[in-house]
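Hi R.,

As promised, here are both runs. First protein below:
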Amino acid sequence: MIKVSVIVPVYNVEMYLTQCLDSLVNQTIDSKEIIIVNDGSTDNSLEIALKYEREYDFVKVINKNNGGGSSAQNVGIKNAGGEYILYVDSDDFIDLDSLEYLYDTAYHWNLDIVKGKYYVYYEDSKSISRKSEKQKIPSENKVISGDIYLKEAIDAGCYEVVSCINLYRRSYLLDNNLLFPEGICYDDHENTLRCLIEFKNRIMQTDRLFYYYRQRSGSMTKSPDIRKAFDIVCVINLMLKFIKSSNLDNETHSYALKAVSSTFYQLTCLCGRLKFKELYKVRRALSKDIIQVVKAYSINRYVKVKNNLFIYSPILIYFYYKLKRSRFS
């Protein structure tokens, strides 16, 4: 049996793909497969991936038309044969003993999800931040349920929606249809919430840093774009639809809506970097349901202030970020 399937969605990352794949093919675990899903790359990414497929019998390349990262991840899930699944973005990389540690933890404690932590790797300076190491929940390194994790993480200010730092039991994802919504960015927000609280599960937040998240100019999540803003609005609507249709207890329901407010904060940050007219287009697209939730729920005071500024006075958000850019330019 294959212990872990690593799914790597690839789109135009020829500069970084070799470092990513080297960190995967050299993993210390004794049973693994690496599924590279080329999502219509127009550079040399596919050729690099095929080179690894020829060299290693546990590497498989799937070539598809461009459909976005979530589409590529879903294709990978459906073609995986491992007991557990790890997603790795193709411009990131991981420590060489990561799969062994994550799998051994999952197997020993019979877990559905093992959560790790990440380094931030700054491409320009080649420096590394260990910020997430300091973010702890009270039940760290203990077996808990997803709803408990959601509450503790939000209260501790360390709620993460990054799917790449989680090892998932494949059957847990497939049996519960926990795939990613396709065709939109920021899909992790909806998927993470569903993975945590839609079904009964066993989860552990470990203290292990293993994932190197590369921050670079031009990356998908860092470039402001009005289409991405509307994607976040779409994701928020999906989250609200899920929450309304779920039979959650009152406390979990409240924390789920706090998670929505956290996603809205990402919208606020992105819209602050848009053109003035674009910002107002996004504000007008907000439904009454979204506005009511954001006004009533928040993960902390800072987020509440910025979210409400965007709702009541988008122009202040615009000038806040304009001033911020001018200070650091």
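And here is the second one, sequence first, then its structure tokens:
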Amino acid sequence: MYSIENCAVSRDLMEYERRDSIAEDACDLIGHNMLMVGPPGTGKTLLANAMPGLLPSLSESDALTVASVRSVAGVRFEPADWACPPFRAPHHGASAVAIVGGGRHITPGEVTLAHAGILFLDELTEFKRHVLESLREPLEAGMITISRAEYRVSYPARFQLIAAMNPCPCGYAGDERGFCRCTPDRIARYLEKISGPLLDRIDVHVQIGRLSSEELRKPPKTPEPDSAQLREQVTQCRQTQFVRQGCLNRELDAERLDEFCPMQPAAESLIQQSMEKLHLSARACHRMIKLSRTLADLDGEQIISASHVAQAAAFRHFAVRSLTA
């Protein structure tokens, strides 16, 4: 179903200066919505731009859908782009119509142009709040319905959201080597644009800190995996999911979780504890189970263990929530 031919991408993971456990974990979990938080210059944007190179080629059905969407949107389609997962990175000044679609002459938005690929929102908190809130429906349903007086249209919008942001307006809150100039009230106002319901739909929260000059110059102790190795690992993990259930783990509905996400008793207990301690909603709990399923697949395990649930719970911890405490 999947091929690992290398489609043309903007950057390669080998260009990422800190191919450490953080980068590897983020790449392994490609497919789940992800938020990266960290000071300026830590490589968040570069890592996101390398993600498309880790995705396998699209299936025939998805490739046809992507080509059709581009045709409807009036976006030029090159033959070399056939079966390449789309990567869209709109500017933070984009309007809600530009993101979800619509307008006087109905056109698909960025969420549809990113179908079967990645939608990257850099400087997340610089987007207007109502624009970010418009992402809630497509993130949950995998499609977007636009209703106006003249028309009612539904477009596909099944994409992976990757977002990046600084922890505060100056960018250095929580940074041991930086000097944050922001007051708690200013940080709280800065973070208000990211609502709880939107965070609920983001499975992986990654905090990326700055590296020292010594760490940047120091060669890795062990050879780090390159893009081709990680791409093959991602492809094998996805193939496992399609053979087992016919879709990716992130696309499982609540009715099928019990069938395809069996857990050890200790894992079930940890899920209950996580719901209580992290105050998780039912949606967040289901998403954590799906993330645990992916972690188990990466380990080649049929049954979800407590360690997989613990990893998933750690990934769901919002890296900047403590800044407002």
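A quick note on the second one: Residues 1-10 have pLDDT under 50 and may be disordered. Let me know what you think.

Best,
J.
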